[in-house]
């Protein structure tokens, strides 16, 4: 019994040492990120919001409120990012690709030959 207690005590001491080492590494990383200016701090002042996936448990009023708030956010973004002058160019419209009559006939002939070959193979197998 004494050996297990000693082993457990040693493991707890090792855990404390590892935790302090991880904390030191976290501090070093945050210092380097703050110097770089591009890093994001893990401990931000703004709490993260987590919503559960199954919204079927939410009331209809709650879902409507969330939807209205999201529509307002998108409207605000659209209003802020609205371009000053809208110019329409012909190159921005997607170009339709039409197949020539000759190409369609070649494809149809190939398909007819393919089906005929398949039918011939089925007759021979039967």
Task: Report the portion of residues in β strands.
Answer: under 5%
Q: Average pLDDT, to the nearest integer? A: 81
Number of DSSP-assigned strands: 0
Return residue spans where pLDDT drops below 50 for at least 5 consecutive residues: none
SSE class: mainly alpha
> What does the overall shape look like?
extended
Terminal CA distance reads 80 Å
Helix content: 55-70%
Q: What is the string of SSEs from the N terminus onward?
A: HHH
Q: Biggest sheet, open or closed, and with what strands and sense?
A: none
Question: What count of helical segments does DSSP give?
Answer: 3
Summary tags:
126 residues; extended
Description:
With 126 residues, the protein is mostly helical. The protein is 64% helix and 0% strand. It has three helices and no strands. The protein has helices at 2-36, 60-80, 101-125. The longest helix has 35 residues, at 2-36. It is extended and about 85 Å long. The model has no long low-confidence stretch (mean pLDDT 81).
């Amino acid at each position: 019994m004494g050996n297990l207690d000693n082993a457990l005590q040693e493991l707890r001491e090792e855990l404390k040492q590892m935790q302090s080492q991880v904390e030191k590494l976290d501090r070093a990383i945050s210092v380097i990120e703050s110097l770089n200016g591009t890093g994001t701090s893990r401990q931000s002042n703004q709490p993260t919001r987590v919503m559960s996936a199954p919204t079927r448990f939410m009331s209809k009023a709650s879902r409507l409120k969330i939807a209205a708030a999201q529509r307002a956010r998108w409207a605000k973004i659209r209003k802020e990012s609205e371009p000053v002058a809208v110019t329409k160019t012909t190159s921005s419209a997607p170009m339709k690709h039409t197949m020539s009559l000759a190409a369609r006939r070649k494809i149809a002939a190939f398909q007819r030959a393919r089906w005929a070959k398949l039918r011939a193979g089925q007759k021979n197998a039967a």
